[in-house]
């Protein structure tokens, strides 16, 4: 398991990609000079970064002696606009530069930018959704200048929570894979999506119906009525009828998101996908094909919790607006 550091990074509304002087800084030097960590998440610093590595800076009096190369640095900041602590970024496969590097860069004191850490680009990222530090620490996570050692369990939890936040957002799909890689780097195992009882039933039913002829699946789905029993028996085992419907729809939709066509591969050559109800079950939405969308986790969360407006909904199609975009989804089975 890699060593873990929590390091302070100055608040920078530009995302630590531009030189920035913080007018609300707590000490005079920071009010007059840009912090070298201002560019920690600018990944193309000429003369410093490479195709493989990004260079950054942590302000400390003494560099960490218990941190071995190949560890993780998690960046903590205090948002001076809201006065709240946040977890804002991560460096993976990081290394402490015992001899700091310096290059010429206008905007810093003496026009010189210093770097005392470097990390693997593919395992380093600015959190698209900053995490509230009070969920992980009591009070300040680290001193205003410096760092603190931490545990793999905490690092795993932070990355796990960021993955969940990205999934809830319904966006940021491009960042998700990097977080999955970082999670594996920290834990040595792949991130797994925990299955609840409904998903377990759906997976069992998927296995049962995986070899069923497509027209037979369609015929069964077309015969469904909202008054059908809520439970059914398949191969001498009782299942929820709606789980059978969802499993069959996943097969018919080829496990592709009906909004973005994403297929999410998981182990054993299978795919992960979710189901969303157009009219929610809590509003007595029917468990029928015309009321069920097959969606990736991101679009499922956005559809359920995002800014959405249904324009037209029939057995054949769904037209809706979501996050200022208009979608037309074919609900037909053939």
How many helices does DSSP assign?
A: 7
Q: Describe the biggest sheet?
A: 6 strands, mixed
Radius of gyration: 25 Å
Order of H and E elements: EHEEEEEHHHHEEHEEEEHEEE
- Count structural domains: 2
Number of strands: 15
Describe this entry's structure for a reader.
- This protein is an alpha+beta fold.
- The protein has 2 domains: 4-187, no CATH class; 197-330, no CATH class.
- The protein is 24% helix and 31% strand.
Structural key phrases:
6-stranded mixed sheet; 7 helices; alpha+beta; 334 residues; 3-stranded antiparallel sheet
Q: What are the SSEs and their pairings?
A:
Elements: E1 4-8, H1 28-32, E2 53-56, E3 71-79, E4 84-104, E5 112-132, E6 147-150, H2 152-169, H3 173-187, H4 197-209, H5 214-222, E7 231-234, E8 237-240, H6 241-252, E9 264-266, E10 270-272, E11 274-277, E12 292-295, H7 297-305, E13 308-313, E14 317-322, E15 325-330
Parallel strand pairs: 1-3
Antiparallel strand pairs: 1-6, 2-5, 3-4, 4-5, 7-8, 9-10, 11-12, 13-14, 14-15
Can you summarize this structure?
This protein has 334 residues and is of the alpha+beta class. The protein contains 7 helices and 15 strands.
């Amino acid at each position: 398991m890699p060593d873990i550091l929590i390091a302070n990074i100055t608040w920078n509304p530009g995302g630590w990609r531009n030189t920035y002087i913080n007018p609300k800084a707590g000490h005079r030097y920071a009010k007059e000079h840009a912090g070298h960590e201002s560019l920690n998440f600018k990944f193309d610093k000429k003369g410093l970064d490479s195709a493989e590595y990004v260079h950054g800076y942590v302000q400390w009096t003494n560099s960490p002696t218990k941190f071995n190369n190949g560890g993780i640095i998690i960046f903590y900041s205090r948002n001076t606009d809201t006065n709240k602590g946040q977890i804002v970024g991560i460096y993976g496969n990081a290394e402490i530069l015992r001899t700091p590097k310096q290059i010429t860069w206008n905007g810093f004191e003496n026009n010189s930018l210093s770097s005392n850490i470097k990390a693997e680009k593919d395992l380093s990222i600015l959190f698209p959704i900053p995490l509230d530090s009070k969920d992980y620490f009591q009070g300040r996570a680290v001193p205003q200048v410096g760092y603190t050692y931490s545990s793999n369990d905490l690092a795993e939890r932070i990355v796990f929570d960021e993955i969940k936040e990205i999934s809830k957002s319904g966006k940021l799909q491009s960042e998700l894979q990097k977080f999955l890689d970082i999670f594996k780097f920290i834990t040595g195992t792949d991130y797994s999506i925990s299955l609840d009882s409904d998903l377990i039933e759906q997976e069992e039913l998927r296995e049962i119906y995986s070899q069923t002829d497509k027209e037979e699946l369609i015929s069964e789905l077309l015969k469904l009525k909202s008054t059908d029993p809520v439970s059914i028996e398949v191969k001498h085992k009782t299942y929820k009828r709606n789980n059978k419907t969802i499993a069959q729809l996943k097969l018919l939709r080829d496990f592709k998101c009906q909004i973005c066509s994403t297929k999410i591969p998981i182990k054993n050559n299978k795919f992960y996908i979710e189901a969303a109800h157009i009219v929610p079950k809590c509003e007595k939405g029917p468990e029928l094909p015309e009321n069920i969308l097959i969606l990736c986790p991101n679009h499922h969360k956005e559809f359920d919790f995002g800014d959405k407006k249904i324009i037209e909904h029939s057995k054949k199609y769904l037209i809706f607006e979501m996050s200022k975009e208009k979608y037309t989804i074919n609900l037909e089975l053939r």
